[in-house]
Amino acid sequence: MTRLAPPVPADLPRTLGALRASGYEPRTVKEEMRANLVARLAAGEPTFPGIVGFDDTVIPQVERALLAGHDIVLLGERGQGKTRLIRTLVTLLDEWIPVVEGSEVNDDPMAPVSAYGRRIVTEQGDDTPVTWRHRSERYGEKLATPDTSVGDLIGDVDPVKVAEGRTLGDPETIHFGLVPRTNRGIFAINELPDLAERIQVALLNVLEERDIQVRGYTLRLPLDLLVVASANPEDYTNRGRIITPMKDRFGAEVTTHYPYDVHHEIGLIAQEADLVAIVPMHLLEVIARFTRLVRESGAVDQRSGVSARFAIAAAEALAGAALRRAAITADEPVARVGDLAGVVPTLRGKVEFEVSEEGREEEVLQHLARKAVAETYRRHLGGVDLTALVTLLDEGGTIEAGDLVTATGLLDAAGAWEGLGRLIAATEGPDVEPTPGIAAACVELALEGLWLTRRIDKDESDGRVRYATTMSEE
Asked: What is the spatial distance between Cα 53 and Cα 59, in angstroms, rounded to a whole number?
């Protein structure tokens, strides 16, 4: 994570002697996380803020594993929030911890483990300079790639230090890797099966004996770590596996999942999407239902999963379509259901289809998108009386929609009819301000729903959509 740490508070001790006098008592990473987690649970506070849809499933399992002091591997398909959950663990660390100044491995001044830390404390005693690490600096993360080496993770001989005149047997000639540099913190490995098996072997001691060995040095560096890994199901990746001794050393294996409920899916999209225009809540629901239908479709390779990034990208693309219309027509930037047809083709790359569906990918997605619109229409407007709107069309009226049709243009074509206020309230809720953009979005959902339920007709040509009850022959 690229996060700047806040300034170190001025009242924290700056020498080992002052640290002793302050009454500081060291504790391990797992002890401090256990204490902080217990405090949050007792206070009824969210233990993992920002994590949506895992409250009754994944989060209790992770809490039990942390309280037990276990290292954890999260197993699940892509886009299920595994990395987000791992990064949220940092919030359970103490805000500040003391470190021997200059230590590469975050030596505890009261119990240094590196050769450098022990030497400095021996030479300077209570005058040993102490610095402080914020919790945001105590997290290390490595994406497992085929070129990852033992040196990257554990360490190697530093030729520069040797060239400075130190002997090869000097432990201070070691350049430490990512794992020891995260000592007294959390180390995460993403996509663990992609890590070569011989490299996984190098981590076995870290997970069990909590020490490292570098190039045959007589070196024992007892590490204080919480190790967390993520992995996709092995039957999908086919790129590697977690070796059996590695699996055995993780105390807990927790399986993640996509949101079970539509409202969790909507909450996730609303939280994560960076929207440059207004996307009404009913459209977020359409996207959530669309995403769930894609996940359930027999045309999609279900082993690969459909990431939450699919839904987030769809919401952001809808906002982009609304902003484009606003820039061209000076309209209010509010997305409408008609924008979805232009967004769907951009999502093809996020879905893996069955081989038998080759060439039909866009057709499948458009069909599922229309089905999601119909479900949303039925939920919000299935019990709403839209007779006045249908009557308007029965009497020869035509309502145009499309990429460049403004909200006022659509509303003028629909006219003032009884029940418009109830339609907006049923679609967006009674507390939403019915601006022209919101009103047009609600009317367009009603029109599209009436067409999908075959109560009115629809004609598309030249980027325009016309809704009527009987289309004239041209």
From this structure: 9
How confident is the model at residue 242, as a pLDDT? 86
Q: What values do phi and psi take at 299, rounded to 5?
A: -80, -10
- Contact predicate 326/277, CB 8 Å: yes
> Domains of the chain, with CATH numbers?
16-255 (3.40.50.300), 262-468 (no CATH)
Can you list the pairs that 143-147 forms with residues at least 24 positions away whose Cβ atoms lie under 8 Å? 143/190, 143/191, 144/189, 144/190, 144/191, 144/192, 144/193, 144/194, 144/195, 145/194, 146/194, 146/196
Owner of token pair 């085929």: 146
For residue 445, the SS3 value is helix
Q: Which amino acid is at 42?
A: A
Query: Coil, strand or helix: which one is 278?
Result: strand
Backbone angles phi, psi at 231, to 5 degrees: -155, 145
Of 401, 407, 398, 411, nearest in space to 463 by CA: 401
Taking only the tens place, the pLDDT of each residue in 160-213 is 666 666 665 566 677 788 999 999 999 999 999 888 888 898 888 888 877 777
Of 238, 259, 200, which Cα lies nearest the Cα of 58? 259
Q: What is the pLDDT of residues 201-216, one digit of tens each?
A: 888 888 887 777 766 6
Helices of type H across 77-167: 82-88, 115-124, 150-153, 159-163
Strand pairing report for 139-143 and 130-134? unpaired
Grade residue 156 by pLDDT with cuts at 50, 70 and 90.
confident
- pLDDT above 90 covers a percentage of the chain that reads 66
- Helix 281-296 vs helix 420-428: crossing angle, to nearest 10: 50
Q: What is the pLDDT of residues 309-323, one digit of tens each?
A: 999 999 999 999 999
Edge-to-edge strand order for the sheet containing 72-75?
139-143, 185-190, 225-231, 72-75, 252-255
Give the global pTM: 0.86
